[in-house]
Structure to design on (158 residues):
């Protein structure tokens, strides 16, 4: 029984997420603009697609809200040497050297797609130490109702 408790303790310590970076140590700016959705291939047939989804995909659309994020760091510790961005689909968006004052840009896409969960809706910026261990993180999330959260704090609504 003691061995089982010890293994559980070790496994739970490995899964612990790094602490969230303080809001005073970084700045997130939104570039909110309107873009037309590129026209889709009308000959493509997807048997799992509903009629409404097909109309949304193929219709000539009016400009839709489009979001780009600009992240910069005002303070970095000696252990924060790299920044890595991943989305909730586990796609690596970028991995770069962390520098104060440098602007890191992430193209998030159409806000309606994020709210409908068609594209990624959560982005995690991990700050890594020289030995590639996560020291802190920043989490950006768009809820289904359009609420925009940065590290769990509400920053607006789309």
């Amino acid at each position: 029984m003691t061995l089982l408790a010890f293994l559980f303790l070790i496994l739970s310590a490995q899964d612990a997420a790094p602490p969230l970076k303080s809001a005073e140590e970084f700045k997130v700016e939104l570039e909110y603009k309107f873009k037309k959705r590129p026209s889709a291939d009308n000959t493509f047939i997807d048997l799992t697609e509903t009629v409404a989804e097909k109309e949304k995909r193929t219709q000539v659309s009016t400009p839709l809200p489009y979001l780009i994020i600009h992240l910069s760091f005002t303070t970095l510790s000696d252990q924060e040497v790299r920044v890595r961005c991943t989305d909730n689909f586990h796609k690596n968006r970028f991995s770069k050297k962390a520098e104060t004052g440098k602007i890191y840009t992430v193209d998030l896409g159409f806000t309606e797609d994020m709210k409908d969960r068609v594209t990624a809706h959560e982005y995690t910026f991990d700050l890594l130490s020289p030995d590639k261990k996560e020291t802190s993180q920043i989490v950006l999330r768009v809820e289904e109702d359009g609420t925009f959260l940065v590290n769990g704090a509400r920053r607006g609504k789309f």
Summary: DSSP finds three helices and nine strands in the chain.
